[in-house]
Amino acid sequence: MKEQIKRKDNLESELRESIRLENDKIYLEYQPIYDLNKNKVVAFEALARMQSSQYGRVAPDEFIQIAEEKHLIISLSRLILKKAAKFSADLEKAGFGEVKISVNMSGLDIIQEDFTNKVIEIINNAGIKAENIKIEITESVLLNNFEIINSKLAKLKEAGITTALDDFGTGYSSFYRLTELNIDLIKIDKYFINKITKGTENNIVAAAIIDLSHSLGLTVVAEGVETESQRDYLIEKKCDYIQGYLFSRPLPEKEAVSLLKSAD
Ligand code: C2E
Ligand code: CA
Ligand code: CA
């Protein structure tokens, strides 16, 4: 108990410091998102990492939650978006200007009055195109603030930023309001991808989400794809994009660029 509180306190001050100094204790890794039709990497998801001086590598689930509890998330998310936008600018310089970067935002971020303006400001400062940034929000954030968040999503879309609904199908279900929602992309949660096994009926949910999304004109990403049989099934069901260890783990910047170069 005591140890846990101490760890939280220490991580909080480390987070505060690295937000203030914008140092590399918080850095990003990039997991490729692979287009099954074009057979190439079309995007990366930016995943936040923390290298604590006291505890070594800390999982994002832990430090993001601390940031949310301690009211640091808004500044942390801005720092993360800034780093992602900088990487996007680097990709463009390296000749990969068509590859997009997807950034996770917390519900607390998106309900801020100036959210859209801040996002646009960071994108402009980095000198990149708005179309090169995607914003991911989890389905669960819609639970309490559907109307507000939906209007923010509309603003992002107006500005040319792609929006994605993450962890789709878990917890609170926005299934019945999907037609109203201002999103471009659905990410099927890995829970349903895990269930894909040959010759069983467990595949049904993933297949249904793909069909439903397509009938609404949305692009579908399958997350957590780990096996070839899952991939083959997703190809058969006309899923658009896949992301998962089968194709690649999240990579440091340099390796992400090398991956693009090697496929070129
Ligand atoms: P998420 O947004 O659902 O991200 C996908 C997670 O699945 C990542 O975990 C990724 O490393 C992992 N993953 C990718 N492929 C596979 C696979 O084939 N199998 C399995 N088992 N896992 C796979 P990670 O990096 O530990 O991130 C965990 C969560 O932390 C993220 O889930 C997201 O909710 C949150 N997170 C990460 N970075 C950020 C950030 O910059 N901002 C915010 N607000 N949240 C973040
Ligand atoms: Ca995500
Ligand atoms: Ca997810």
Which strand order do you get reading across the main beta sheet? 1-2-4-5-6-7-8-9
The CATH architecture classification is Alpha-Beta Barrel
Largest sheet: 8 strands, mixed, barrel
C-alpha-based Rg, rounded: 18 Å
CATH superfamily: EAL domain
Protein model, in words:
The chain has 264 residues and is of the alpha/beta class. The protein has a single domain (24-48, 77-263), classed as EAL domain (TIM Barrel, Alpha-Beta Barrel). The chain is 46% helix and 20% strand. It has 10 helices and 9 strands. Strand 5 (133-138), helix 6 (142-158) and strand 6 (162-168) form a beta-alpha-beta unit. Helix 3 (73-93) packs parallel to helix 5. The termini are far apart. The model has no long low-confidence stretch (mean pLDDT 95). The structure holds ligand C2E and calcium ion (CA) (2 copies). The site of one calcium ion has 5 residues, from strand 6.
Brief overview, please?
The protein has 264 residues and is of the alpha/beta class. The chain is built from ten helices and nine strands.
Task: Outline the secondary-structure elements.
Layout: H1 2-21, E1 26-35, E2 40-52, E3 56-58, H2 60-69, H3 73-93, E4 100-104, H4 107-110, H5 115-126, E5 133-138, H6 142-158, E6 162-168, E7 185-188, H7 190-194, H8 204-215, E8 219-222, H9 228-236, E9 241-242, H10 253-263
Parallel strand pairs: 2-4, 4-5, 5-6, 6-7, 7-8, 8-9
Antiparallel strand pairs: 1-2, 1-9, 2-3
Bound molecules: ligand C2E and calcium ion (2 copies).
Domain EAL: 8-264
Protein name: EAL domain-containing protein (Putative c-di-GMP-specific phosphodiesterase class I)
Organism: Halanaerobium saccharolyticum
